[in-house]
Structure prediction request, 452 residues.
Amino acid sequence: MITEDHMGNIWKQVKATIQNQIPSHCYRMWIDPILVREATDGVLTLACPNAFSLRRVQENYGPLIAQEIRRHGGSSCRFVAGNGHKPTSDNLPFGNEKQLALQNMAFKPAAGRFLHKDYTFDQFVVGRNNDFAYSASLSIASRRKSEQSCLYLMSKTGLGKSHLAQAIGHHIIAAYPDERVYYVTAEDFSNEMVSSFRNDCFDQFKGKYRSQCDVLLLEDVHYLGGKDRTQQELATTLDSLFEAGKKIIFSSCYRPSEIPRLNDKLRSRFSYGLVSSIEPPDFKTRVRILEKKAKVKGLQIPRDVTHYLAGELTEDIRQLESGIMQVAAKSSLLGMPINSQLAESVIRNIIRTRKTITVDVIKKMVCRHYNVSLQDLVSRSRKQSIVRPRQMAIFLSRRYTDAPLQTIGKAFNRYHATAMHSIAAVEKGCQKSNALRKQVAFFTEKLDQGDF
Prediction:
């Protein structure tokens, strides 16, 4: 007969084995907190800290844990959520019966946008380019009270700063359900402030952020450049949060010192905490990212193809995602196996298209389509017939070129903040106007196909 003490020893051995098989940060976050609740007839009941942890452990490590328990002398395991919970019919043993599927759990902060369900710490691939940013994010998320309560994540678009910011939100909501997490963009904050003025509820707006928020995740803070009234209000709000020991996470494409038209008071607030940059991933990290994406999407990608994609697609994570999905899509549509030849045909077009698209190319293409001159496009004219093509060209320049916003703005005789406004105007317009969505799709198709 296997005693509970013996089963406890089995679990210690299982943990030691798993610790050598998975990344250390994954072990610390998901496996180490698991406790043995009881052991009956060789079945271990393992208690995860909460429902979120339960789902993640079952999805990502359940089969591995069950396998190691059997290998060390147990028969199977079952999982429960919370320290005091007993097994129920929803927590069936691994290895003996089919596990019931858990419903997708949508995580919404106390206020603001929904958190992306895949933007969690265990879905983040850690490499030399982002290990410091990852460690800083995990540290601020894991400790309810810590000396470091402010973090500024900085990187170019598509390198993972939004992923880490939202991972902090996911972890805090799961570990500390009573914490009030607000996830908003700087544009959201500005628009909400303006709306509160217009609707005579500014005191309510101030109270919401200053006294009803425990964790503020504020994305794209460079959007605030030139918005003097919003900057003043945000600086005062941040002072209240700092004094109360609340957690604040900023993200931006620029260092605080590089954000144009930002007042000194707010610039100092952004620099108050730890500023952590994320660099483009190296080859080994790109390989691991592709392998992770393929696993999540259920794709079987040969190793030589993965290495080829990692060697060719070097710009950012979004380009890697696009490459692997295009290879899989072409394979499915043509009924061809995924091999190096297929990958080369797809990637060759991506690289060629990216290299030949410039801001000037986009300006000329937009002018031809809307029948306006280059002089009009970069003029000070505020006619709608000129403003819309100009906004579209700025939007496409941001999406298809590596030029920074300042450079894009200068190409149209505009400030950085105006370029950001143009991009936001097109993005918002696409949500409301089917005609505008079709125009964006038209230009996107032409640029993707190199037809410009």
